[in-house]
């Protein structure tokens, strides 16, 4: 049915000489117009939120549909050159399979988030609704243009628009000083990253001074320059993606932003950085070295462990999710690194397997991380609390949000039969082939990376049990929580869309794998589609390993149903409600259950060397005992603060140039004019 | 899929559900003999289950739907795992649904559901048990994964039916990698199933509990289902161990017919008897470790598995 | 199965057992336990040397094996046991770094040793050439054990375990060392243990404890 719809549309587009790319550009333009349309009624939240945001969501669905069609059928790249931009460098736009996949990701994730945002934004949030709508839709449009850009100038313009619009979105509640500070840090890191990406493009043009991607593809590099370009791109895109050690802005910016914005940033913006990394490493650079693969693998695994360990000791629910994003980005980078490693050793099938795992994990992360951030938004609106120490027991007051959050939690913990498990399974499968690498020590060290991966995945399960258990289960830790109200219908619709995506991709991962196959075919020359059937996926061979999400899901549901029916028929005991087991101490309060700090205690004990902790412990003679713990990132003190101080000193030193006297400034202009005259004439 | 495969699948699942409590009872008997006590009757677990099923449920006032659904989910995942693991026969319709790594994931699903249900009531004990269980879980997963990696390097597959099908061409049993992997697997199996030296399954002191603390609130039919699921989990781990390291007797591809099935059943029962006695011996000889010694124990298991891997790469290459 | 193939397999298992014992020594908590493990290392070496002697037909390896049995399984453990009983140091064996980190460091050393040994092994011609990597790993692990221990007696045991590794390396690469060298090493070991034993008594007299931290107070300040 999909194919016949495609035939109809391609027939129509051939007659009209429009193709998928033109439709997509129309959608991008429509988003921009939606953003500006908010100014018709600048202060009406109902107009902006209830009308414009759902329209934006429908456009997201449109772009996902178009991308899906493009991937499923004729995969020849499509070009457009727009007469905007610089005089000799107009905007080049190109749609190929890599952009198509990431646009699919953007569309599917964006649809759910926009629908939720339509129900979420309420008045009195610190920014005028029209501005919010403008920034939001510009953010969406600029992400789409980043993915579609085919020359360095358009890429950087769109990248900057993305950074600026997201900065304004992050500082929506700009009256709070912490939020301003977080936004400032985000802006600095975004620009440091942008400078690195710009320098990388500068190296990539390879002497031709043509900044289109086509020119970069045909340039040839010495290994030194290729490595320089790669490392600069890694710094730049890694800073945007949140790879350790460039991650410091993530745990500050994501909690400061409103929840739909956090979801967009975590679910979609980080993936544009992944897109950029893939574009530079596999498409623009024609050679790769195995050392790059090892570097990416090591950084990725370290980020994964770092993110998981820090997430386990957080007490703010959005910071916990932010660190979890760092962990998942680490896993994706580890997959990309493994893919480069295999490709440079001429093992293209395994490289395709690793890249497939990384791409599928990007897609899954967009789904489940957005879902979780959106549910924290609902919780925040219902309870006005962000700290885990003041939540609890919300499953009874907010059943819809709780059940959809449960699906998100199970997905992110990597549990079958949901989608998180499939990508982690594929990544583990690709690690199984690393002993066949031809490098002497690597083939023994990298299998240990599989253990690090398993540890990170299992730690993320631990973290998510803490997240869900402390927020939704147990007793409410504050008396005000009994008046929490569930989400409204628009929010529920957005959450249901994302949760349904998690379940569908978990049961039928073949759908997304079929979208990824052309990408790996183009980038690496091989795909893993070979032995998959409708029921199951078998990436290498049936005999070696296979997995069927659909049958697992159906199996669990049917056995549970049969057991339930049997037990109900045979066992007729009644239910009576009593108090919980209290071991003989009847004055149980909600303070006696585990806190967020308590649940993180085993991690603090086992991995204490990773943190910098300050603890205030009560002594035996305290009449009002208090316990305080403050956990900080070591990298902040040891890397960032010294750099900041160095920059400050340098600026102070140069500051003497700013004399304050007008004649000095005129002297500067005069000297520059003299120098130009000398050098030009 | 042929009808005979479905029939054998059905026999395997029913057998698993039926004899899992018997396995637990046999281990209790062996422990009692080794500790010079008089043994409880072998069929005591069945009597317990029957008693529990017919009692009234005492449910905490704050228990949510998640708490009530968890026993069914646990039982469902364990039965599904029993259907996938080739304990009697390799030619099962469900055998290709999940490979061994996915089976580990399925056990993780059960563990997460149990931990969440324990946190649901909101008492100190439930959350204590949940926290400890998840800690043991995340430390055991790398070790278990390394054992499966070992099996992959030795036998070329992570899919259990393929492993068992090719067992006649495997390297001999006294290969050091196989021995290391087997010992590591046994150590991880003890940890995951809440046996000494990680957890005492018959303790009554709440502060020393890991698994039991999560079951404190369950009663009647819910408790019966959870207990049955726990004994099924132990049975499943034993069957995975047999498939990986002691596959003799399992009816492989091509051997249809009632004779092969009966031999497989007899072989399975024999292996379970010996495994149960060995487990009881290990439990009686060891003491329960302090909770923060558990990482060292699991680190030892991880180390053994990695050593097996490295020794194979060195010696077998 | 041919006898030679069987012997090769058993030798592999024994070498792996030696590696395992080295790791157990790395994580052992009690000095008594370490001495027992050292004795077991000697037993495994003895069996392994006998099997190599049988399959290669060299009779002097039997003498080598007998010397190992006498010295490393019987004499040295007895001397060490008496030593620690008189010093009162049976139980304590603290570590400088915690156990999982030491294990991880040991694992990296094993990978390093295996990686180094592979090209050398392809040049040797003995039946046990593959176990050269394991021998190198045993030496490195024993050294690591010496570094991460706090009390003095354990370092002696580490030193002796290093010699075990050396012996294994010699057997695996070149069918043993010339008898003269072996007897010389054995004599050195015995004398060394005697002298170290006297030394430990002196340390205990001076500092009232065997903790090596006390020796740091001897430096110039």
Secondary structure: elements and pairs:
The complex is a heterotrimer of chains A (681), B (317) and C (221).
Chain A (H helix, E strand, L loop, with lengths): L1 H15 L3 H18 L7 H28 L5 E9 L2 E7 L1 H24 L8 H20 L3 H19 L6 H28 L8 H5 L5 H19 L8 H7 L2 H26 L5 H23 L4 H28 L3 H36 L10 H4 L1 H14 L6 H13 L10 H31 L16 H19 L2 H15 L24 H22 L4 E4 L17 H4 L1 H6 L4 E6 L11 E6 H21 L7 H19 L1
Antiparallel strand pairs in A: 1-2, 4-5
Helix pairs in contact in A: 2-3, 2-5, 3-4, 3-5, 4-5, 4-11, 4-14, 4-19, 5-6, 5-11, 6-7, 6-11, 7-9, 7-10, 9-11, 10-11, 10-13, 11-13, 11-14, 12-13, 12-18, 13-14, 13-18, 14-16, 14-17, 14-19, 14-20, 16-18, 16-19, 17-19
Chain B lengths: L2 H32 L9 H10 L3 E4 L4 H20 L15 H22 L2 H32 L4 H6 L10 H17 L18 H4 L5 H26 L12 H28 L8 H22 L2
Helix pairs in contact in B: 1-3, 1-9, 1-10, 2-9, 3-4, 3-9, 4-5, 5-7, 5-11, 7-9, 7-11, 9-10
Chain C lengths: L2 H25 L3 H26 L3 H28 L11 H23 L10 H16 L4 H23 L4 H29 L14
Number of E-state strands of chain A: 5
The strand order across the widest sheet of chain A is: 1-2
Low-confidence stretches of chain B: none
Q: Could you give the order of the helices and strands of chain A? A: HHHEEHHHHHHHHHHHHHHHHHHEHHEEHH
Q: Shape of chain B, please?
A: globular
The total of helices of chain A stands at 25
Mean pLDDT of chain B: 89
Helicity level of chain B, as a percent range? 55-70%
Largest sheet of chain B: none
**Distance N terminus to C terminus of chain B?**
39 Å
* Structural shape of chain A: globular
Name the beta content range of chain B: under 5%
Can you summarize the main beta sheet of chain A?
A: 2 strands, antiparallel
Radius of gyration of chain B: 19 Å
Structural class of chain A: mainly alpha
Query: Count the helices of chain B. How many?
Result: 11
- DSSP summary, beta strand count of chain B: 1
What portion of residues of chain A is helical?
Answer: 55-70%
Q: Mind telling me the C-alpha Rg of chain A?
A: 26 Å
């Amino acid at each position: 049915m999909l194919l016949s719809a495609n035939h109809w549309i391609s027939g129509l587009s051939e007659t009209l000489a429009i193709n998928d790319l033109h439709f997509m550009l129309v959608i991008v333009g429509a988003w921009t117009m939606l953003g500006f349309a908010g100014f018709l009624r600048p202060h009406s939240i109902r107009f902006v939120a209830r009308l414009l945001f759902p329209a934006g969501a429908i456009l997201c669905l449109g772009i996902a549909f178009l991308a899906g069609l493009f991937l499923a059928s004729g995969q020849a790249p499509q070009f457009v050159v727009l007469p905007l931009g610089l005089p000799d460098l107009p905007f080049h736009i190109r749609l190929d399979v890599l952009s198509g996949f990431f646009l699919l990701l953007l569309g599917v994730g964006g649809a759910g988030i926009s629908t939720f945002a339509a129900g979420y934004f309420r008045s009195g949030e610190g920014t005028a609704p029209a501005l919010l709508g403008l920034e939001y839709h510009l953010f969406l449009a600029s992400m789409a243009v980043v993915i579609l850009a085919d020359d360095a100038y358009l890429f950087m313009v769109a990248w900057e628009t993305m950074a600026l619009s997201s900065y304004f979105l992050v500082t929506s509640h700009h009256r709070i000083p912490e939020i301003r500070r977080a936004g400032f840090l985000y802006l600095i890191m975004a620009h440091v990253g942008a400078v690195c990406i710009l320098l990388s493009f500068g190296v990539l043009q390879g002497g031709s001074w043509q900044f289109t991607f086509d020119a970069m593809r045909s340039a040839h590099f010495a290994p030194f320059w290729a490595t320089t370009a790669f490392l600069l791109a890694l710094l730049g895109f890694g800073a945007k993606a949140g790879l350790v050690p460039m991650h410091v802005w993530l745990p500050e910016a994501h909690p400061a932003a409103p929840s739909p914005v956090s979801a967009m940033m975590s679910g979609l913006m980080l993936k544009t950085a992944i897109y950029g990394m893939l574009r530079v490493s596999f498409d623009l650079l024609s050679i790769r070295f195995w050392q790059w693969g090892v570097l990416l693998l090591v950084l990725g695994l370290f980020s994964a462990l770092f993110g998981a360990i820090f997430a386990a000791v957080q007490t703010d629910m959005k910071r916990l999710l932010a660190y979890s994003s760092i962990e998942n980005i680490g896993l994706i980078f580890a997959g990309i690194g493994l893919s480069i490693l295999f490709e440079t050793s001429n093992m293209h099938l395994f490289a395709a397997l690793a890249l497939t795992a990384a791409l599928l994990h990007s897609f899954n992360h967009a789904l489940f991380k957005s879902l979780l951030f959106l549910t924290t938004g609902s919780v925040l609106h219902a309870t006005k609390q962000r700290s885990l120490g003041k939540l609890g027991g919300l499953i009874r007051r907010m059943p819809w949000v709780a059940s959809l959050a449960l699906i998100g939690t199970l997905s992110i913990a990597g549990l079958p039969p949901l989608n998180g498990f499939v990508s982690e399974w594929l990544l583990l499968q690709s690690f199984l082939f690393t002993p066949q690498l031809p490098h002497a020590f690597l083939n023994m060290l990298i299998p240990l990376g599989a253990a690090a991966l398993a540890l990170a995945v299992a730690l993320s399960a631990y973290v998510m049990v803490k997240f869900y258990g402390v927020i939704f289960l147990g007793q409410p830790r504050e008396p005000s929580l009994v008046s929490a109200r569930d989400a409204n219908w628009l929010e529920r619709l957005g959450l249901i869309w994302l949760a349904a995506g998690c379940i569908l991709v978990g049961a039928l991962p073949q759908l997304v794998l079929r979208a990824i196959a052309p990408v790996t075919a183009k980038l690496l020359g091989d795909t893993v589609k070979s032995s998959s059937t409708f029921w199951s996926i078998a990436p290498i061979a049936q005999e070696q390993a296979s997995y069927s999400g659909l049958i697992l899901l159906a199996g669990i549901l049917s056995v549970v149903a049969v057991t339930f029916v049997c037990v109900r028929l045979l066992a007729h005991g009644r239910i009576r409600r009593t108090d919980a087991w209290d071991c003989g101490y009847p004055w149980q309060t909600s303070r006696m259950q585990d806190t967020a700090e308590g649940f993180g205690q085993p991690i603090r004990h086992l991995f204490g060397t990773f943190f910098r902790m300050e603890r205030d412990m009560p002594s035996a003679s305290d009449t009002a005992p208090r316990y305080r713990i403050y956990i900080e990132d070591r990298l902040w003190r040891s890397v960032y603060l010294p750099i900041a101080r160095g920059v400050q000193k340098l600026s102070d030193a140069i500051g003497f140039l700013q004399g304050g006297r007008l004649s000095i400034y005129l002297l500067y202009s005069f000297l520059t004019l003299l120098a130009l005259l000398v050098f030009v004439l | 899929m042929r009808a005979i495969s479905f029939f054998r699948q059905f026999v395997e699942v029913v057998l698993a559900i039926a004899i899992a409590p018997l396995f637990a009872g046999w281990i209790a008997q062996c422990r009692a003999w080794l500790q010079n006590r008089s043994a409880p009757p072998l069929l005591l677990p069945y009597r317990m289950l029957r008693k529990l099923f017919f009692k009234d449920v005492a449910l905490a006032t704050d228990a949510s739907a998640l708490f009530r659904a968890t026993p069914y989910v646990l039982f469902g995942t364990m039965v599904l795992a029993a259907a996938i693991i080739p304990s009697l026969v390799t030619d099962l319709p469900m055998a290709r649904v999940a490979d061994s790594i996915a089976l580990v994931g399925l056990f993780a699903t059960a563990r997460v559901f149990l931990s969440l249900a324990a946190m649901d009531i909101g008492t100190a004990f439930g959350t204590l048990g949940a926290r400890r269980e998840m800690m043991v879980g995340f430390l055991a997963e790398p070790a278990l994964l390394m054992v499966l990696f070992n099996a992959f390097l030795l036998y070329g597959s992570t899919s259990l039916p393929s492993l068992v099908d090719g067992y006649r061409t495997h390297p001999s049993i006294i290969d050091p990698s196989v021995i290391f992997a087997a010992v590591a697997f046994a150590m991880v199996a003890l940890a995951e199933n809440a046996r000494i030296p990680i957890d005492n399954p018959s303790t009554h002191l709440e502060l020393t509990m890991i698994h039991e603390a999560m079951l404190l609130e369950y009663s009647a039919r819910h408790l019966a289902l959870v207990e049955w699921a726990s004994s099924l989990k132990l049975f499943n781990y034993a069957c995975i161990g047999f498939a990986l390291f002691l596959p003799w007797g399992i009816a492989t591809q091509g051997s249809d017919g009632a004779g092969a099935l009966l031999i497989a059943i007899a072989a399975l029962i024999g292996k379970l008897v010996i495994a149960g006695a060995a487990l009881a011996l290990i439990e009686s000889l060891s003491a329960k470790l302090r909770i923060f010694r558990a990482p060292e124990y699991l680190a030892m298991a991880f180390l053994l598995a990695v050593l097996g891997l490295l020794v194979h790469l060195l010696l077998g290459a | 199965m041919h006898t030679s193939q069987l012997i090769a397999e058993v030798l592999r298992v024994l070498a792996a057992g030696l590696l395992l014992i080295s790791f157990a020594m790395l994580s052992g908590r009690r000095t008594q336990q370490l001495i027992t493990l050292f004795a077991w290392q000697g037993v495994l070496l003895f069996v392994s040397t006998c099997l190599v002697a049988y399959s290669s037909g060299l009779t002097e390896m039997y003498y080598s094996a007998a010397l190992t049995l006498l010295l490393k399984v019987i004499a040295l453990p007895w001397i060490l046991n008496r030593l620690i009983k008189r010093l009162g140091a049976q139980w304590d064996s603290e570590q400088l770094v915690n156990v999982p980190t030491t294990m991880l460091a040991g694992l990296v050393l094993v990978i390093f040793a295996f990686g180094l040994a592979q090209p050398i092994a392809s040049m040797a011609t003995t039946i046990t050439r593959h176990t050269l990597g394991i021998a190198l790993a045993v030496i490195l692990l024993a050294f690591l054990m010496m570094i991460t221990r706090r009390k003095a007696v354990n370092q002696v045991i580490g030193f002796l375990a290093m010699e075990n590794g050396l012996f294994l390396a010699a057997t695996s690469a070149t069918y043993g060392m010339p008898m003269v060298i072996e007897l010389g090493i054995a004599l050195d070991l015995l004398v060394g243990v005697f002298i170290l034993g006297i030394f430990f008594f002196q340390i205990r007299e001076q500092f009232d404890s065997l903790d090596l931290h006390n020796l740091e107070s001897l430096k110039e300040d």
